[in-house]
Every structure is written in structure tokens, then in C-alpha cells.
Amino acid sequence: GASIFLLHGPPGCGKTLTAEAIAELLRKPLYIVTAGDLGITASEVEKTLGSVLELCQTWDALVLIDEADVFLEARSSTEIQRNALVCVMLRLLEYYSGCLFLSSNRAGKSIDAAIASRITVMLGYPSLNVDGRGKVWKNLIELVPAQPLDPTTKEVPARIANNPRKASKYRVNFTTEDYQSLAEAYQLNGRQIKNSIVLARALARERGSPLSMSILQRAVTAVAGEDVEVPSN
Prior knowledge:
Elements: E1 3-8, H1 15-26, E2 30-34, H2 42-59, E3 62-66, H3 69-72, H4 80-95, E4 99-104, H5 113-118, E5 121-124, H6 130-141, H7 158-161, H8 164-167, H9 176-185, H10 190-207, H11 213-224
Parallel strand pairs: 1-4, 1-5, 2-3, 3-4
Helix pairs in contact: 2-4, 6-9, 6-10, 10-11
């Protein structure tokens, strides 16, 4: 029978990453599709999703339906079209024998009872706490190479420091306190942290300078909105 995993929790907390990691561990391809890709009517969804599931069974691939909330919500007498979508999902799951991940932003308790009965494992994801945010900041920032130092002078070589194109490929040295400061100052999810670093690197290239705390703070404000408090340092 099918192995169906429901990954539920707020955005940017690691649901998609979980499916990607399991696919990598099993050395199998992962087919990712969002609910919006499948269509808006029951007939469109049945045709498109049926084709996806058939292909993935042929390829022995895992499937992730991202943002699957519309297929999971408990049915009601007033939402005929949405009820039809849930029925289509139930019918397709009944005959699917592969591994399927459903990603949802809603709590597990609000899932349609018939859908819930077909789910093998429900995994709930909490929002990132300060410690979790600090680790995400550290892991992603340290993907950017640190500025190389001259072994004699312990300073950045002039050929890099005086070359904006080269300088912008690196980051300054971030301390444990810096990561803690970022985690405490900004209540961001994992996706927002990633987007902040991507934008900060673009700003660094524009300025011809290494990635720094001040550039990161500007990027966070742009990504998360003006209401985010920027530390004064």
C-alpha cells in the first residue's frame, strides 16, 4: 500500500526540506508539485494528479504535493467544489501504492477525517525558536566563504580588499554572538532567512564589499518588512 506522510506546520519550518532529505537518503527522485499546478476543478485535478502519480510509480519516485491545504480541509455542506476536490484526492490515494508527502500550513486536527484515515504518519513542525533560528543563520551564512587572511599580516590581502568584484564573493567573520543577535532580533522563518541572505549577497555585489552584518540587516528589513526592528550596532 501507499506510504502517505502529512507534514504540517507554519511556512519556512522545514517541511519541503524533510521530503528532499528523505528522497536523497533513499536515492530516489522527488517530484514536487503545488496544489495550484494541479488545476482548480475536480476534473482538472483528477487528470493532472492522476498523471503525476502514474509517472512517479513508473519512475519509483517520491511525490510531494506542496500547499495541499485545499485537498485536506474538512468537508462542509456549503463548499461543493472544495468537497469535490477532497473526494478526488481520496479516490486517487485509494489506488496509489507509492510514497507521497502532503505539505500543509494547517493543523493536523482540521484535516478531513477520511483523508486523515489514509495518512500513514503525521509530522507536526513548530515555528523556529531562537536557538533554531541561530542555527539556520549560521549554517546558511557559512556557505559563503570567509575572507582569506594573509598568514603574515593576518589581514585581507590587498588584491582582494581593493578589488570590489573579488571582495563581494566573501563574508566578514561572524561570531557566535552575531548569530545569536540575528536570531533574537528577527523572528523569521527558515525561508525568510534564506531570502535575506540571497538579497544581502546581491547588495554586497552591488557595493563591491564582503557580506557583513550591516548589509544583512538592510536585507532583512526588505524581506520581512519595515516593522522589523533593526539592532543599533
